[in-house]
Amino acid sequence: MRIILLLMWILHWLPLPVVGRLGKAIGSLLFVLMAKRRHITLTNLQLCMPQLTNAERRQIARAHFQGYARSILERGILWWASPARLTKLIHIEGAVPAADLAKRPTIFLCPHFVCLEVAGVAITMAGPACSIYTRQRNKIFDEALRRGRLRFTPDERNLMARDAGVKPIIRAMKSGRPFLMLPDMDFGPRESIFVPFFGIPAATLTAPARLSAATEGQVIPVVTRFLPNYQGWKVTFYPAWEDYPGHDIDAATRRMNAFIEARILEAPAEYFWSHKRFKTRPAGMPSVYYAAKP
User: Fold this and answer.
1) Per residue in 45-60, pLDDT tens?
2) Which of 54, 156, 199, 289 ranks highest by number of CB atoms within 10 Å?
3) What are the start-end ranges of the H helices in the chain?
4) Within a domain: residue 289?
5) Residue span of the structural domain in which 211 resides
6) What's the alpha-carbon Rg for the chain, to the nearest Å?
């Protein structure tokens, strides 16, 4: 891991197109070598996009591996490049809605696109924010990741343990710190309900709706994508959702998934398909990941 971090640090001095092309090449290699993750990715794509041909899904899967590997190497730029360089590379559509943050508690809803870390940098460069942090198995990488995420807001309270419960998050939000929430991974049946994700029942966190209701807070979606030709990244802040969550948690959670689906269709290869999104299944339904061979 020290070697990987050293490589990331060395590469962050190079122009982004060089880093990006190297990441893409590594991603192409990993697509061949990582059979298990390739199988998960192709299974997810087959479930969510059955209208595509096998060749089309394989093309998206390969591009996903390329984008994910790019995002890992480019993270070195986020961690160590100067703020001036980051400002040139991060193109914000609109602006970080600082005025809105002062009015009421805020949840930044950040779906799992491969450039997700860029959104956190864009937000924390503008002011303090908090998020949930899962400790990494490798202590060296864990320390590097923590430092990277706290680079512009170096207060340990801004990274909250997942098992600490909801109270610290509510306190932070009511104190004026927005909460960066990653709502679209399968964390099991606890605090989740099954709602459609591309028509497939998916265990989906109800926390965005419940937190919004508990704090009377607003939900502002944020999506980050690669700019073409290795020019940088685009961070899009969408308008705060109106009439959210309402009185129906199920409907609010379906609304969130529908929004994420629409953004995925705009750039399919950049979504985090290599995660077991359908790991948790409704009672009596078999696993979707073990039957077919990659």
Assistant:
1) 999 999 999 999 999 9
2) 289
3) 2-11, 16-33, 35-48, 54-80, 83-89, 98-103, 116-126, 139-149, 167-174, 207-215, 249-266
4) no
5) 2-270
6) 19
